[in-house]
Amino acid sequence: MDIQISQASKGDRDARSIAPATAMSREQLILQLSAVSGPTYLQAGLRALASYAGASHYLLVRCDFIQESGLDFVVSSDWPFDLVRRLASELTSGYGRIGELEKCMSLFQPSVASLPDDLELPEGVGRQYYGLTLNVGRTRFSLLLLTRDSVSLSSDRLRDVGLLSGYLASCTRCFEDKLERDFDLTERELECLFWIAEGKTSDEIAMILGISRNTINNYITSVMRKTATKTRSEAIAFAVRNNLV
Question: For site-directed labelling of 161, which of 26, 50, 170, 177 has its Cα 20 to 30 A away?
């Protein structure tokens, strides 16, 4: 996956000049996204969405990659690189603390958070940022929007951006890299996940599959580690949401 950080393409620069936040209507935004719906126009589309919302910077991340090392979860961003690198640790630690129900609820309501106080920001950029969560198939993304100092974003415009971000992510194919990976679960792990979703205990699954109870528990532990869930119930919710069972 190509990580695009603080690099404005020609299409992105065009979007900046065409789409001032105070002037763009919903209809104009839809027309602009339709014009940049190819797989190479992700930055231009994100810039248009950020401008429509009234944000100064965008950062699109893949939630299923957040537990991995490095910055591989960053899909595209025009945030200053130091901010992205610092926020990476905040996202990684924070995402691991959120339960599966909270992750599902985040699809319906934008979140508002603040950057750490000790982080140096570009002139005019506020510490507050907005988070929008969206699904494209089985892949979950978060779009994080920075604002100018003392600027609040409209909930109606954020709702439009949340809906249209899914369209943009789908058209630009930024989710295909591991679309078929089933979160790296093995066939045995998927089998165990299916049976715990059916309400079976470890002893019952062991009898069904003809292997020991300890081996079943090891498979289930591996499933929870790979899906960043803490309980069997959370693993089941994750599996249902991502069409794994």
Answer: 177
